[in-house]
Specification:
By secondary structure, the chain is mainly α. Helix content is 77%, strand content 0%. The chain is built from five helices and no strands. The chain has helices at residues 3-6, 10-22, 25-33, 38-44, 48-65. Helix 2 (10-22) packs across helix 5 (48-65) and helix 3 runs antiparallel to helix 5. It is globular and about 30 Å long.
Length: 66
């Protein structure tokens, strides 16, 4: 089961799917190492915690494919 599918929050899951489909593992690694992107947080109407959880899940799914 993918990490994205394990997310319980609907908004975080939708954002994680977007991240997975739109960004490479390298992009997501860089995002995870920096501060949350507040423009994405506002656009997706999620919290910083949801942003971090979604990016981590998307990255984990990319890394599982590698």
């Amino acid at each position: 089961m993918s990490m994205i599918d394990q997310l319980r929050d609907g908004k975080a899951k939708a954002f994680a799917k977007h991240c997975y489909e739109s960004h490479s593992a390298e992009d997501l690694r860089a995002a995870a190492e920096g501060p949350p992107d507040h423009s994405q947080i506002e656009h997706w109407e999620i919290s910083e915690g949801q942003w971090e959880e979604a990016v981590a899940a998307a990255l984990a799914d990319h890394e599982a494919k590698e």
